[in-house]
Amino acid sequence: MAGTGQERARHWQYAELPGVDLLRARYVRKTFVRHTHEHFVIAAIADGVEVFHHGGADRYAGPGTLALVNPDTPHTGRAGVPEGWRYGALYPPPDLVAQIAAETTSLRGAPGFTAPVLDDPYAVGLVHQVLRAADEGNALAADTLLRVAVTRLLRLNGGALPQRVPRTAGARTAARARAVLEERIVRPPTLESLAAELGTSPFALLRAFRDAYGMPPHAWLTDVRVRRARGLLDAGVLPSEAALAVGFTDQPHLNRHFTRIVGVPPGAYQRERKNVQDLRRGPA
After folding, report:
1. What is the pTM of this model?
2. Quick check: 280 pLDDT over 60?
3. Given a cut of 60, is residue 283 above it in pLDDT?
4. 35 φ, ψ (degrees, to nearest 5)
5. Of the four listed, 94, 111, 119, 211, which is most buried by Cβ atoms within 10 Å?
6. Which pLDDT value is given to residue 284?
7. Helix, strand, or coil here: 198?
8. Helix, strand or coil for residue 153?
9. How far is CA 126 from CA 89, 90, 121, 203, in A?
10. Contact 146, 91 (CB under 8 A)
11. H or E element that contains 26
12. What mean pLDDT comes out for the span 233-239?
């Protein structure tokens, strides 16, 4: 596990659970900046307390509870007590959750979680059993327990995710700004020049973007850069090269933001991915 002092974290994948990220960590002083995930977050708290800002309020998750975050939902994370928190987390992709929901629930539309914190020690145990089975290479148990855990959480705390459709002029402006930033991720414009290009004022653009995506443009851009860096690291690109490819000034710049969002440094993240790829290829 990567880390120093009291803090330890391992972020990895198991070849027999394709597309599912796994995390086991203890954090004390760690602070996650506002960010999003492409996948669901199912974080099972073993001890301590995690506080995360979600939906306009601070949420508290202690032992026996789960922190649940839907895809593309801005949130933060930090310790709620001096001793920090220890947890295990699963990050299943939306298509897998939708498949499980269709097979085991009556939910219609894109499924998701309705409450960000759920008190359910049994589900917490299931999450840790999935991680243990992955560690032990027990593919049957890992896949079975993952599906049981997701089914239980959807039945207890599931609903259809609202569809985000830009209806206002501000939302349409924010969507256009997002498209520009995605296209110019390496050399983004200033807020003033972006607003002028879109025919609005800097503060009007700032408000519209925050309303639409839950964070200001610069924070959203950092989040996207880290996502793209993860894809490059998964493909075997060196961290120093990935940093420049997504617009960071150098590898330390990537390291700082990557660790504040993913929870581990890019080098440790890539080593775990390489281990999974080696297992999938099999012996030479």
Report:
1. 0.92
2. no
3. no
4. -160, 175
5. 111
6. 46
7. helix
8. helix
9. 11, 11, 9, 46
10. no
11. strand 21-27
12. 96
